[in-house]
Specification:
The protein is an alpha/beta fold. It folds into 2 domains: 3-207, inorganic pyrophosphatase (n-terminal core) (Alpha-Beta Complex), CATH 3.90.1640; 212-337, Diaminopimelate Epimerase, Chain A, domain 1 (Roll). 39% of the residues lie in helices and 18% in strands. The protein is built from 14 helices and 12 strands. The chain has helices spanning 3-12, 29-44, 77-86, 105-110, 140-150, 159-172, 183-194, 199-207, 212-223, 240-245, 257-261, 293-300, 318-328, 333-337, and strands at 18-22, 48-53, 71-72, 89-93, 114-119, 130-133, 226-228, 233-238, 268-275, 280-287, 304-305, 309-314. The strands form 2 sheets. The protein has a 6-stranded parallel β-sheet, sandwiched between helices. Strands 7-8-9-10-12-11 form a 6-stranded mixed β-sheet. Helix 4 links the parallel strand 4 and strand 5. Helix 6 packs antiparallel against helix 7 (183-194) and helix 6 (159-172) packs across helix 8 (199-207).
Length: 342
């Protein structure tokens, strides 16, 4: 982050402000962790801060400190819009284009509030006065840690803030196994633990709260798994009927695509999830090595993300989506087969 921007933001935050903090639609651990960490930090510094999420999020994130203060735009629209209109500053976290907020896109783009972006995704839109954008970072939570540090307030990171930041780093790094996890990431995590983040308890809250139905859904997903060995690719499908059969709840398919990626000699994995309410197929893509699922998603499925983790969507049927996906693979043959050491 530029020194002049840090200086300007410090001056901006020197007096209490009305601040709204917004993550992307369908917020995940990094989105909820980063927004709540920033919420606690700003509140400690006498700002009137509010976290507004576009819609609901998984129950395994609802234990995070400050969860009870989060407002949901889709069910509390009038209150949320009033707060956005009254805001002096809007922080946008873990996304870099307003369309990633779904129905909030219009009200955010029309807001006269000063915008500050903190995000680690590729190809940011130019909407923010101050942009802290770094694709090399493991997570937006890691960036919030740096942001607080840049403002000279690392000593203000207490157990509550440390817990929120730890959640996002842990989830966005796949429990510290993705290539985005650097030695600096581990140094930050060590500091968070020293400041009071209970790493074992956090892991249990997020990963060890499975319902019987969620495990049944996982079994269904794995039984649907298909391998296309010639292109070192595997994919999973889940139809709306299958989701309904196992009483699907938001977050139940989190991380399922990684099972496909874990197969020996597979470097590209996808999961296609039917959503009849929205009339779309939701797509999550994962890869190993330098095969960019970000570029793949942008080129073919109206999406994007990171080199090794991205998402997309299509209005085709589930069957037609899979057919399209398979038909595209031959054009990526060289990229998928160039390094057999992975």
């Amino acid at each position: 982050m530029k020194n002049e921007d840090i200086k300007s933001i410090k001056e901006l935050l020197a007096t209490p402000k009305n601040i709204v903090i917004v993550p992307h639609k369908n917020p995940d651990g990094d989105a909820i962790g980063s927004t709540l960490a920033l919420y606690h930090y700003l509140s400690k510094n006498k700002h009137q801060a509010k976290v507004i999420v576009p819609n609901d999020y998984p129950s395994f994130l609802k234990w995070i400190p400050g969860n009870e203060h989060i407002l949901k735009y889709d069910s509390q629209t009038e209150e949320c819009e009033a707060l956005i209109q009254a805001a002096d500053i809007i922080f946008t976290l873990d996304f870099n284009a307003f369309h990633r907020t779904g129905d909030m896109e219009s009200v955010l783009s029309q807001s006269a509030a000063l915008k500050i972006m903190i995000d680690h995704h590729q190809a940011p839109d130019d909407y923010a006065t101050y942009m802290f954008s770094d694709v090399s970072m493991s997570s937006t939570c890691e960036m919030v840690y740096h942001f607080i540090d840049y403002l000279g307030d690392r000593s203000q990171i207490d157990a509550t803030i440390a817990t929120c930041i730890y959640v996002g780093i842990m989830t966005d790094t796949g429990s510290f196994r993705f290539s985005s996890t650097t030695s600096k990431t581990h140094q930050i995590v060590a500091d968070l633990i020293d400041k009071g983040a209970n790493n074992s308890q956090i892991h249990n809250h997020v990963y060890d709260t499975n319902s019987y139905e969620r495990l049944q859904l996982l079994g269904q997903a794995l039984s649907n798994l298909e391998i296309i060995s010639g292109y070192r690719t595997a994919y999973i499908t889940l139809s709306q009927d299958e989701l309904n059969r196992y009483n699907y709840k938001k977050g139940d398919t989190e991380g399922v695509v990684n099972y496909a990626l874990s197969i020996n000699n597979i470097i590209f994995a996808a999961i296609f999830i039917e959503d009849k309410k929205e009339g779309i197929i939701k797509i999550s893509l994962r890869s190993k090595g330098d095969f960019s699922v970000n570029e793949f998603a942008r080129a073919h499925f109206n999406g994007g993300g990171h080199t090794n983790a991205a998402g997309g969507r299509t209005e085709l049927s589930l069957e037609d989506t899979v057919e399209k996906f398979i038909s595209i693979l031959p054009s990526y043959n060289d990229a998928l087969n160039h390094d057999e050491t992975i």
